[in-house]
Design brief:
5-stranded mixed β-sheet, globular, alpha+beta, Alpha-Beta Plaits, 93 residues
């Protein structure tokens, strides 16, 4: 069963390659969706995949790439019916 979650990642997560690292991690874990910086200094992602894959990418999000300092990750269930076919970077919002 495919699930969709929204993640908000807090901490020192901009300017450290977080989005690029998450794209690579998403491809390795077969996650689809998107990631972007937010103007408040957080990173936002929508991740879609199996429960196991979502757990893996959420665990990765709690650590991030070398240089990131993640203070917390908020997770929200997403009930939208959109199906994602890749994992991409969106512009900052």
């Amino acid at each position: 069963m495919i699930e969709t979650r929204r993640l908000i990642i807090h901490g020192q997560v901009q300017g450290v390659g977080y989005r690029y690292g998450m794209i690579a991690a998403a491809k390795q874990t077969q996650i689809n969706g998107w990631v972007r910086n937010r103007s408040d200094g957080t990173v936002e992602a929508v991740v879609q995949g199996t429960a196991s894959a979502i757990e893996q990418i959420t665990d990765w999000a709690r650590q991030g790439p070398i240089g990131a300092v993640v203070s917390r990750v908020e997770t929200f269930d997403v009930t939208e019916k959109q199906i994602y076919v890749d994992f991409i970077q969106h512009p900052t919002q």
